[in-house]
Amino acid sequence: MNKTNYIKSLDGIRFLAVTLVLADHWSGDRLGFPASYLGVCMFFVLSGFLITRILLSAKEKDLGLKRGHGFSLKQFYIRRTIRIFPLYYLTLAVLFILNVPPVRDKIVWLATYMTNNYFAIHETWFGSVDHLWSLAVEEQFYLFFPFVILFLPLKRISKALLFLVIFAVALRTYFFFDGSSWIKPYVLMPTCLDAFGIGGLLAYWVYFKKEKALQMLSKPLSPILGTVLYFLSVYWLKQIGGGHNYVAIIFLRLAESLLSLSILGFLVASGRNSFKSFFELNPLVYIGKISYGIYIFHNFLYNEYHKISWSPVVKLIDKMSSSHYVLISSLTTRIVVLYLLVIALASISWYVFEKPINKLKNRYGY
Fold first, then answer.
1. Secondary structure letter of residue 135 according to DSSP
2. Angle, helices 291-301/8-27, rounded to nearest 10 degrees
3. Contact at 8 Å (CB) between 298 and 25?
4. Considering Cα of 40, then 41, then 46, then 47, what sign does the dihedral take?
């Protein structure tokens, strides 16, 4: 069996992650916990898992064929470019033409995937394109991480992944005690490495069949403990005043990563069960498959804090809410309506634009 076979339930996890982000952004953070933070972190952990798994397989193949790792490195970057760049740059081009602020003014930062660094340097946000910071983090992660997996000896990879986890937590701790704005430890790529590293460790355990780790993760208690740990962290955060305190800055992402690990680990390490079956439901899997487009588009439909004046959806929602339409004024109904709209938009993008381009990846196998 191929060690990098498609795992259907992971698209279900993408559904969960993107839904958390959308609900939080569209509700104006009124869900009672930082759901968008958790959703983004789930994406990071999942990326760490999938990319590490792919690279370990490529490394093993290189060693078997007695070839250098340059070929796998080239294939990795070509495949990532095919999947990520087209929709991202098409979106930027449309926003630039429509003159959606601040795209024209900040186009260099956006085009070079450096928005997160801009936020950290200037301790501010862009508004309508704020959410693209996480894509910048992922791209920056892709720049160096393949070298770690491909060129380190196999016996050192797990230690390197653990180092990434410790380094990220230590760096966030430094920024907190240095008095930096909370934005810096939140958006910089190195401060997100615990999420990627934890995902990478899971891939390492699964790939090399580390039985002790997998046995622990395959028990139903694993996601329960992960959930308890996460909500205890949220409770701790609120007990000391909420906001961007030391719990939010230093520990919250680690708790989010461990929760993500417990869920992902249970899905990939356990046998058939109702939990896995839920994440393999076809509607959830479909939404997960088109989640990249959903994530990119959602902020341009509606955002409670950064309403885009040209957006007809924003104008319609504001008009109906001000006219005392009880149905559309309901927070739940608003989220459902917006969700259906963004699924429709992302579906068009997937079938008309993304999927045809994505087929080019078949030419660049490892």
1. H
2. 10
3. yes
4. positive
The reply to whether omega before 102 is within 30° of 0 (cis) is yes
**259-288 burial, b if ≥16 CB within 10 A, otherwise e?**
bbbbbbbbbbbbeeeeebeebbeeebbbbb
**The predicted structure's pLDDT at residue 271:** 86
Q: What is the model's pLDDT at position 1?
A: 41
According to the model, what pLDDT value does residue 54 have?
96
CA separation, residue 355 to residues 283, 297, 344, 360 (Å): 18, 17, 15, 9
Contact of 196 with 138, CB cutoff 8 Å:
no
Structure tokens at 61: 């193949």
Single-letter amino acid, residue 175: F
Q: What is the distance between the alpha carbons of residues 135 and 115, in angstroms, rounded to a whole number?
A: 9
* Nearest CA among 160, 116, 109 for reference residue 134: 116
Task: Give pLDDT tens digits for 303-348.
Answer: 776 666 556 777 777 666 666 555 566 878 888 989 999 999 999 9
| CA–CA distances in Å: residue 5 to residues 119, 279, 282 | 38, 17, 18
Alpha-carbon gap, residue 176 to 184, rounded angstroms: 9
Non-local CB neighbours of 202 within 8 Å, separated by 6+ positions: 45, 48, 49, 217, 261, 264, 265, 268
CB-based contacts of 184: which residues, under 8 Å, 6+ apart?
A: 120, 123, 175, 191
Say if residues 166 and 198 touch (Cβ distance below 8 Å). no
Are 148 and 163 a contacting pair, CB within 8 Å?
no
Ranges of the chain whose pLDDT falls below 70? 1-4, 305-311, 318-329
Contact 9, 273 (CB under 8 A): no
Cβ 358 vs Cβ 82: under 8 Å? yes
State the Cα angle at 27 between 130 and 259, rounded to 5°: 75
- Name the CA dihedral angle for 285, 290, 296, 298, rounded to a multiple of 10 degrees: -60
Pull the structure tokens for residue 324: 């005392």
The whole-angstrom separation of Cα 340 and Cα 83 is: 24
For residue 144 the two structure tokens come to 């160096």
274: tokens are 């109702």
**To 10 degrees, what angle do helices 331-349 and 312-322 make?**
160
